[in-house]
Amino acid sequence: MTTSAPVAIVLLSGGLDSATCLAIARAEGYACEALSFAYGQRHDAELAAAARVAAALGATGHRVMRIDLAAFGGSALTDPAIAVPEAPTTGIPVTYVPARNTVFLACALALAEVRGANDIFIGVNAVDYSGYPDCRPEYIAAFEGMARLATRAAVEGPGGGLRIRAPLIAASKAEIVRRGHALGVDYSLTVSCYQASPEGVACGRCDACRLRAAGFAAAGLPDPTRYR
User: In 8, 100, 180, 217, which residue has its Cα 20 to 30 A from 166's Cα atom?
Assistant: First the structure.
């Protein structure tokens, strides 16, 4: 008798962290349905990267949802009038997209309900990151608590309902790179840059590029990123 693998929804941006998160979920034996978002981001080359990563890492499916977060503005990633910083800044940077992870997780939660998935994987990180408030452990715990109140499975199903899995939240970027490398992630497929060209060529100057390059250097592994 064969037992089918449990289904997990994996938020997949096409960047380094989310690719590693997908590899972790696959290694844990999940049938992974990857979920990406076209939300009006200026760096939409990451969507092509997400498709490449989903195929390479054996996702059972990959869907792209369209959500117009650019309609709200307020972020350098969705408003072309706001420049992406190319030097370190203090406080929460202008690349923070208001409520982005809340919106993404809510959509993943809906998909998980329909697909009968008890786990949602998200590659947020609270160590080597840009300081976004929706990447912190307390935020993930709070969303999971809400999800366990808001879903049919939480009320009618066994096991206490859905889990939000953030396996990278306490890892350094170097640790993430090493872990993904050990799991066979091809990081040349990924795009992290906030202002990547349509072909996925990175600027090498934004916060995401600096964190990525430093992670590879600290891990002692070659950086496969194509920089301008």
Answer: 217
